[in-house]
Description:
It is built from 13 helices and 9 strands. The protein is an alpha/beta fold and 271 residues long.
Amino acid sequence: MIVVTGATGNVGQPLVAALVEAGEQVTAVARKVTEVPGARFHQGDLVEPKSLAPALDGAEAVFLLTSADFMANGNLGEVVDVVRSAGVRRVVLLSSQGVGTGRHPSVLEDAVRQSGLAWTMLRPGNFASNSLQWADMVRTQRVVAAPFGDVGLPAVDPVDIAAVAAVALREPGHGGHVYTLTGPVSISPSQQAAAIADALGEPVRFVELSRAEARNQMLGYMPEPVVEATLGVLGTPSAAEQRVSPDVERILGRPPRTFADWVARNITAFK
């Protein structure tokens, strides 16, 4: 049995679906009660590690996905203690590319490395689904407003992250590995706006925000250190952050999905 935390999000939802389709028994863990097709649901929160314990009975592997507020309120070492005590043998952590480039702290990865369990780290870069932040303005104004309009990053489809996670959770040979997950090509915000326009069949105007304007908006839903790190990646990415990683294709045996693929599947959000 495999336990998936964060099971109702952009990565967790397709991961549960992929595992169920592969014939695995899955326990889906999330903070809010919901129905998860094909899986057993357990309400729990990693901020309260003991709430996870009932979901771990009989589990062989766990996918760990922390919430946005976890760094301020949670302790992954305590979570890992609960996981290990339940007899789980394998953990896959959704980390971030920023750990490898030094922009984000390594505290979550450190807790998993020190657990004594077989571990795999997934380090995705910029998510294609981050463009959902533009959905309302596209629907109402046919506008995308974002900073650094011509700076490209290889945005990764969350479905590809989920597919790699499913392999690491189910198959041998991934213990002790760190995978950097990106899309197939760098794409800038202005190019993303154009891809959305193509899928809609209507013009979408791109408006470039200043760094200060973007910072003020982001402070409404992100801690300041995260805002600064994010703006650094978006505005002045390193060569490593702009590089297309081979890991998705190497693990899945196919190229990563394009941003246009993601838009086509999610176009109703922008209509």
